TrEMBL record:
Residues 1-115 form the YCII-related domain. This is YciI family protein. It comes from the Bacteria. InterPro entries: Dimeric_a/b-barrel, YCII. Belongs to the YciI family.
Length: 130
């Protein structure tokens, strides 16, 4: 099964790192990705530019609305992702715990829903019976 490991951290805190610290973290992230790929867990992954470079698109009543910046104000920003292949959530967690920015922020692990022409899937809201 595929899992996406979304990397979040506070961009302001990361901007406070020295160039040497930032370069070391980048090297560590690349080594982590290479290791996960070599062991057959990582499909792909990318780092993202800061949220100031984001554009948010919404379509409401067939009208396109474009906003500069991220979707929402948050303490941590989406910084990148690793697309992993794992047997189950426990294996995905075991691999995602190796992602270096987890020390600075968080890693959100979510199963990938593969789209099909016809799916009978209901997504209950929190507290709603399944």
């Amino acid at each position: 099964m595929k899992y996406v490991a979304l990397v979040y951290y506070n961009e302001q805190e990361m901007a406070a790192l020295s160039q040497q610290q930032w370069d070391a973290l980048s090297q560590e992230c690349m080594a982590c990705g290479e290791d996960l790929t070599d062991r057959g867990y990582m499909i792909t992954g990318e780092a993202l530019l800061p949220v100031a470079s984001a554009t948010t698109l919404r379509v409401r009543d067939r009208q396109i609305h474009i906003t500069d910046g991220p979707f929402a104000e948050t303490k941590e920003q989406l910084a990148g992702f690793y697309l992993l292949e794992a047997r189950d959530l426990n294996e995905a967690i075991t691999q995602a715990e190796k992602i270096p920015p987890a020390r600075y922020g968080s890693i959100e692990i979510r199963p990938v829903r593969e789209l099909a022409a016809s799916q009978n899937i209901h997504y209950p809201l929190k507290g709603e019976a399944k």
